[in-house]
């Protein structure tokens, strides 16, 4: 590993640990402070924390790699995500912040579901908590795996060492600093990602000589790189756009909305978050397109041999950001750019780790084991849960199976279909019932699993190859919520009164 790269990584890790120490000393020891930052996040931290925990390494590796191969025919997923994120800020964020506060100061989503519907059976809490814990443990394992792989491929360390470094640093600042540390590190990591996704495509563009030679080379390529409809089908476009539906049900993203200090801050948070997201997405797309031009024209300097195949071409399109960062910049700057990938990975791991430990603490330990547990006891259990979830994730990532990786790839659809319609209806429809909520969640999750794993094919193709599973999952979940709520008895007078109370509080908060 180059000395400059090592220095950049050391600075990055020390900064993350320093933020964790600051959060440990300044955040309160009560459970709301540890798991939700005392609902005191500012708009900037809220926005970049939500964005960084959302995008992960996909922003710097997956998306540039897709554009490197297929050009702007992949733009639909970026459009879908952008629209979904904007609508999430607009229709979910303000109401969720107010409703979770009024509904007995709900700390987790299962906590909110139980309080919103006055669920005495606790089935809503139990089912939603199981979904969160199982899928986020797999998500966390995939993130740790990605960190170990990055250290192996980019830094020359062995996989196990990289895995333990990634997990160790994340666990350290999450364990001690809680939600505040996770959010503040996400903010810094979001800034690093933002700068990196501007620097890399701009530097490559300048070295290639500007717009004229770049456009000439694109015109000479085998496929129309700038045509968004090249090879597209109606169902294919719908599937890519439908990724945006997932935002309404992602616990690690919408928990940021629950933690902001005031709903009046959402306007600024939305502006910051959407500006960050749009510019970063454009940077990622241009990295792939301009990277393809660079690899086609600069044949004398295609980067380290480890990234090339036997024909001297890029072996894995998803490494284009890594290759450009090592070719175009001094090792000190290149180390900073590689730290951006690590930042993207770690921001998602820490968010998922904290949401999972919070659910273990509030939705299992407090709800079913120690209902009279003090705040300090809950914080202690939360910290122990961080270690347990991290240990399980490390164990899974030491020998990752294809089954694990494919399940994690479908978890976005699972969360979106199971929780998205449930959250939106719970915030807007007074007549929604407990039975409708539970049925909608089960149907949404079940449809996604059926769509992925059912031994049904059409012309030899699986159902998921025709349309992304979040589409039928979300649609059937929403229909189920409406039908079951209409067919079941109206909510009790106390639940209707609580809903009216939340509506009045929302109007007060917005004035």
From TrEMBL:
Membrane topology value: Multi-pass membrane protein
Keyword match Membrane: yes
Record flagged with keyword Transmembrane helix: yes
Record's catalysed reaction(s): L-proline(in) + Na(+)(in) = L-proline(out) + Na(+)(out)
InterPro entries per UniProt: Na/Glc_symporter_sf (IPR038377), Na/Pro_symporter (IPR011851), Na/solute_symporter (IPR001734), Na/solute_symporter_CS (IPR018212), Sodium:Solute_Symporter (IPR050277)
Pfam families registered for this protein in UniProt: SSF
Cell location: Cell inner membrane; Cell membrane
Keywords linked to the UniProt accession: Amino-acid transport, Cell inner membrane, Cell membrane, Ion transport, Membrane, Sodium, Sodium transport, Symport, Transmembrane, Transmembrane helix, Transport
Membrane-traversing stretches: 6-24, 75-92, 123-142, 162-183, 190-209, 229-255, 276-296, 320-345, 379-398, 410-429, 436-454
Annotated family: Belongs to the sodium:solute symporter (SSF) (TC 2.A.21) family.
Job description of the protein: Catalyzes the sodium-dependent uptake of extracellular L-proline.
Protein name: Sodium/proline symporter
Organism of origin: Alkalimonas mucilaginosa
Classification of source organism: Bacteria, Pseudomonadati, Pseudomonadota, Gammaproteobacteria, Alkalimonas
